[in-house]
Structure formats: C-alpha cells, structure tokens
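Researcher: Re-running this chain for the archive, since the previous output was lost when a drive failed. Same request as before.
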Amino acid sequence: MTNKTKHHAETEASDEVEASAAAGAKAAASGEAAGFADANADANVANDNAFEVLTKLQAENAELKDRLLRTLAEVENVRRRGEREVNDTRVYAVAKFAGDMLGVADNMERALANIPAEKLEAADGAIKTLVEGIELTEKEMLRTLEKHGVKKLDPKGERFDPNFHQAMFEVPDPSVPNGTVAQVVQVGYSIGSRVLRPALVGVARGGPKAATVEAEKQD
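Model: Regenerated structure tokens:
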C-alpha cells in the first residue's frame, strides 16, 4: 500500500469516527431533551395534584369554619334564651300571688276613699289611729309588691296606652290633647314589662291631636 493510499484510508477512518461521535452526541442530546420534557411533565402533574389538594383543603377549612361559627351562634342563642327564661321565672314567679293581692289593695284603697274628710277630722283618736294604720298597711303592701317588680299604674294626665290601659268611656275635654287619660276609674298594675291588670280609664276627646302638641313643644 502506498503512502497516498494509506493517508486516504486514515482520513476516511477519522471521518467515520467523527461522524459516529457526532451521531452519539446528537442522540445523547435528544435523550437529554426527552428526559427534560418528561421531568417537566411530571412536575406539571405534581403541581396540578398539589393545587387540587390545596383547593380541597381550603374548601374543607371554609366549611369547618362555617360550621364552627354556626355552632357558636347557636350556643350563644341557647345561653341568652336560658338567661331570659331564668330572668322571666324570677320576675314573673310572683305574678299569680301579686294578682291575688290586688283585691286586698283595692279594698284598703276603697275603705280609705269612703271615709269623708270632715268625719275623719271629727273622729276620736282611736278612729284616726285605725285609719292611719290602714294607710300605713296599704303603703307597706305596695312597697313590698314594688320590690318584687309590681308597680301601680295611675295614669291620669298621661297618653292612653292600650297595652296598659283599658278605655271605659270618653270624656269631652278640649283643654288636653286627644287620647289623654282624663279619669282613672280603677288603678292598674304591671309586673316587669307585662300588664298584671290594666288601669280602667276615661279618655279625653275634643282637644288637639297629640302629635300636633308634641310638634308645638319642640318648636
């Protein structure tokens, strides 16, 4: 083999080696690219799964928070209702007894009202002492009832309130606003915010409307 032929053969062998190396490098690069693509795909799947889990946890957390708030609200309502019932029981427990005592209070008031002032003045000391004793007994009974939440309703001159007053008749009286209690036939009683017995009253008619009077007062 001549030197020229030998050199040509070596050149071809070198070219083949370089081509083979280039092909290998290209294949390796292609493999790496495919590996990166697969890794990215796996990462995207993992991110999607994590987002799904996070969204689910947030929804469950919101639901649990809502349930907790509803439970707390219900507990607070039960507590308030219990306090109100206990308070009502305490305030209105004496209602029946107080209602029975109203007749006694009425009788003492009538007894005192039926004694003419001139006869009382002319009465001897024993009679005056008896009357004073009745007056003191009435005051003490009313004071005791008031201590238990029972209040006397004597609304003369006040505006008629159908929640606490019962109108028996009308009284023509243009000097006072319409709807004013002009006369009290029988006093009433209340316990707490409830009426125990409405006051029996006569209501004034013929005067200006109450709203007009209030407006004039404000002006």
